[in-house]
């Protein structure tokens, strides 16, 4: 909570599994501060929500992240089944030019 705000995660998800809670996620990490202001990193992949750590691919980006590639690891810290709110940590590993 004390970290500096540097951007937003923007995107959508859809159910993508019949057997478990699996989502198809399309997400942009949009930067609004510092050196990367105006740049984005784009992720698209399957998120098996109740798996401890999930890995999804980085498929591109814009600005300083043009031609980005690599992966994202997601880890859920808190999930409220009543409100469906959650706190998720995304660690982004990215190669770019």
Automatic annotation (TrEMBL):
How it assembles, according to the record, is: Homodimer.
**Does this entry carry the keyword Iron?**
no
Q: Which Gene3D superfamilies match?
A: Allene oxide cyclase-like
Organism (species): Morella rubra
| Protein's GO biological process | phenylpropanoid biosynthetic process
What's a GO cellular component annotated to this UniProt protein? Answer: apoplast
- Pfam assignment, any one: Dirigent
Role this protein plays = Dirigent proteins impart stereoselectivity on the phenoxy radical-coupling reaction, yielding optically active lignans from two molecules of coniferyl alcohol in the biosynthesis of lignans, flavonolignans, and alkaloids and thus plays a central role in plant secondary metabolism.
- Which family does the record assign? Belongs to the plant dirigent protein family.
What is the protein named? Dirigent protein
Alphabetic keyword roster: Apoplast, Secreted
The places in or outside the cell where this protein is found are: Secreted, Extracellular space, Apoplast
**What InterPro entries does this protein's entry cite?**
Allene_oxi_cyc_Dirigent, Dirigent
The regions listed as transmembrane in this protein's record are: none
Q: Where is this chain primarily localised?
A: secreted
């Amino acid at each position: 909570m004390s970290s500096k705000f540097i951007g937003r995660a923007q995107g959508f998800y859809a159910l993508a599994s019949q057997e478990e809670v699996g989502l198809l996620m399309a997400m942009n990490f949009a930067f609004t501060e510092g050196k990367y202001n105006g740049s984005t990193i784009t992720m698209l992949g399957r998120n098996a929500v109740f798996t401890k750590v999930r890995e999804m691919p980085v498929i591109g980006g814009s600005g300083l992240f043009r031609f980005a590639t690599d992966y994202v690891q997601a880890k859920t810290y808190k999930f409220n089944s009543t409100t469906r709110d959650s706190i998720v940590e995304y660690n982004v590993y990215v190669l770019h030019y």
